[in-house]
Specification:
Chains A, B: Pfam families: MoCF_biosynth, MoeA_C, MoeA_N. Chains A, B: Pathway: Cofactor biosynthesis; molybdopterin biosynthesis. Chains A, B: One of its GO terms (molecular function) is molybdopterin molybdotransferase activity. The structure is a homodimer of 400-residue chains. The radius of gyration of chain A is 31 Å and the shape is elongated. The first copy, chain A, has 400 residues and is an alpha/beta fold. Chain A contains seven helices and 28 strands. In chain A, β8 and β9 form a beta hairpin. Chain A folds into four domains: 159 residues, Molybdenum Cofactor Biosythetic Enzyme, Chain A (3-Layer(aba) Sandwich); 43 residues, Alpha-Beta Complex (Molybdopterin biosynthesis moea protein, domain 2), CATH 3.90.105.10; 53 residues, no CATH class; 69 residues, MoeA, C-terminal, domain IV (Beta-clip), CATH 2.40.340.
Chain lengths: 400, 400
């Protein structure tokens, strides 16, 4: 292991990460538990929807031809035969010259092919005056117009939102095949790292990254398992990593902040498996390791939470998205940049910004600071090919 | 109850909804369970962070004055006294003319006030040649520079993201006071409504809205309780609504699609409590009811899932945000509009759009359709004061 890492471009690192994305299984879950889960297969409609010719307005079911030329001055006059009741089969048929009252959602009576809205109709005892002509099919949803039996309601790879759950329920689908939540194992390393509830002796830092990584994993639809804190000793890391790769779909090793520790992680990964990338042209996040032990991807993260998070969003998120078969969930806004962002050419720079009065204000600060994480709303990504952005530039902010 | 609703502007409806937002209690949860929860109080640092003067680079702890004028040509020469080990108190002090190797994160030895980076230093046996001058404080994080003891790490109202969890762990905070998840009760009404797993007889529709509402509630940090489907009979709705307002922080009554049913809901709410709004200048979503029974807000939603969802995002989301004391979580993008969107003046129109090649493509279709919900990515909001947007306009899309 050399002092200066052999860095690869971000795009290459992402490709490597995606190339080792784990395959996760499928399970069937009830609709109530399916929010934000990813469909593993296309889901088709079991029958036609709405399943019957349905009025989409409150009005009168008519034969469209009877209303030809109807106007305020010269309304069509139709005999009112009665009411279609909600949720009931229609009680009769519409013959020429007659109509039935029909509520929104009512079943079209045989013979009717359109609905005249109440707003343009007038009732005179047993007669209805229709003041506007309606075309065949007007204000009617045909029995298979929403989904025909067998049509795909939602495709594989769809991350289910609340509306999707409603539409699936409408189609009579109450359980769905979804991708299993990948299990992400998290190992913290570093002689200086102590548990989050420990007091801080000089030189010690509390274990922030295991909480950060677990939160990230859950936000990305994974389960998380924290394996605790390991001293800088390959003899301790080795068996724990073996256990973690056995149990998990992905293992994150959060590095100590010193080079020695990072090299220990890379050493152990290389010994048990393969190190594919050691160093990315990414700032922060350069000392990242991408490797594999058996078929399980193992990612070595920088020790600083701010750097670790950039690697999670840049490298790990696309890997998890490929495993889930669904796009990376992220939020972006385009805003004006409030101040210059300088950046070194040759590395992709993720610069933290705060959104203030609709502008992106860069949040600068020493690299070791944590307070810049909670004072920022997202990052502006400066591509490796650029030397930064200038005040007034229109930039895209990837929101936390 | 009149046939034509007395509609109020959207802004007024939102104000009414916010004015009846429930007060939810506070609970203490562990950090691992705190993701996306809302802080109920400011959280302060128990001690200084990092807690000791810390190097932020790998290098040599020096007295800055010793490096004054140092350059490639004329390096400063310092006696190397040894190594600061990670996680350990420094083994000695730095006197003028000497230095200690220090790793990133190491404790600054007494007497040192800056760190010369390894990249600009050279080791010759027991001597270190420093090729660049460093200023006092350079590459050092002071003991309270990140957070001073007692400083607010994260404020009340913060919805905790993964980084926040990491920063809180760093500060030694392992449990946090958060707002309790509001409990949202959901009642479906309508003679025509059958359970989602029932076959569809003519005229029947499956209960989509209770799944939609439950998904929405969970997405907005609430628990959801579905109370089942009620026929159009005030004698059945009345006791169920009383039970729901007793048990829940908010009750949603999903209306049948016909006017009769909506009026039944308004009637029962008015009888047991107060109807504050019945009709909003919103499309879709006009026949919305905002009321209160006891201190519990009760919202009557339109029967169609597409309309119901617009009311949830427009009226219910701000109410829940106020209850949580945190902003509405939503995603917006500004894009070019690919086709004209006509709209009637006087009502706020939420027009479904699909994002395609970076443009917003309006998804039109008959009002009863469900497939437009799953084929769209969000909505463009046309304010009541406008008659629509034109192709090429720069519009904001609120993403689902």
């Amino acid at each position: 292991m050399s002092l200066f890492l052999e860095v690869v471009p971000v795009a290459e690192a992402v490709e490597v990460a995606r190339s080792i994305a784990p395959t996760v299984g499928t399970e069937e879950v009830g609709l109530e538990a399916a929010l934000h889960r990813v469909l593993a297969e296309d889901v088709a409609a079991g029958g036609d929807l709405p399943g019957f010719d349905r009025s989409v307005v409150d009005g009168y079911a008519v034969t469209a031809g009877d209303t030809t030329g109807a106007s305020e001055a010269l309304p069509a006059m139709l005999t009112l035969k009665g009411r279609v009741e909600m949720g009931q089969a229609p009680p009769g048929t519409v013959e020429s010259g007659t109509c039935w009252y029909i509520p929104t959602g009512g079943v079209m009576p045989p013979g009717a092919d359109a609905v005249a809205m109440v707003e343009y109709s007038e009732v005179l005892e047993d007669e209805v005056l229709v003041h506007r002509a309606v075309a065949p099919g007007e204000n009617v949803l045909a029995h298979d117009e929403d989904f025909a039996a067998g049509a795909v309601v939602l495709p594989a790879g769809r991350r289910l939102n609340p509306q999707d759950l409603g539409v699936l329920a409408s189609a009579g689908v109450t359980t769905v095949p979804v991708k299993k939540d990948p299990l992400v194992g998290i190992i913290s390393t570093g002689n200086e790292v102590v548990p989050a509830d420990a007091p801080l002796a000089p030189g010690r830092v509390r274990d922030a990254n295991s909480y950060l990584c677990a939160g990230f994993a859950r936000e990305h639809g994974c389960e998380a398992k924290r394996y605790g804190i390991v001293k800088d000793d390959p003899a301790i890391l080795r068996p724990l990593l073996l256990q973690a790769v056995e149990e998990c779909d992905l293992v994150l090793i959060s590095g100590g902040s010193s080079k020695d520790v990072r090299d220990m992680s890379a050493g152990v990964i290389g010994e048990l498996g393969t190190v594919l990338v050691h160093g990315i042209a990414l700032s922060p996040g350069k000392p990242t390791i991408i490797g594999r032990v058996g078929t399980t991807p193992v990612i070595g993260l920088p020790g600083h939470p701010g750097s670790a998070y950039i690697v999670l969003t840049t490298v790990v998120a696309p890997l998890l998205a490929l495993a889930a078969g669904a796009p990376v969930p992220e939020r972006r806004v385009r805003v004006r940049l409030a101040a210059n962002i300088p950046s070194a050419k040759g590395r992709e720079d993720h610069v933290r910004v705060r959104i203030e009065d609709g502008e992106a204000v860069p949040v600068f600060g020493k690299s070791g600071l944590l307070n810049t994480l909670v004072r920022s709303d997202g990052v502006v990504v400066v591509p490796a090919s650029r030397e930064g952005f200038e005040e007034g530039d229109d930039v895209e902010v990837v929101l936390w």
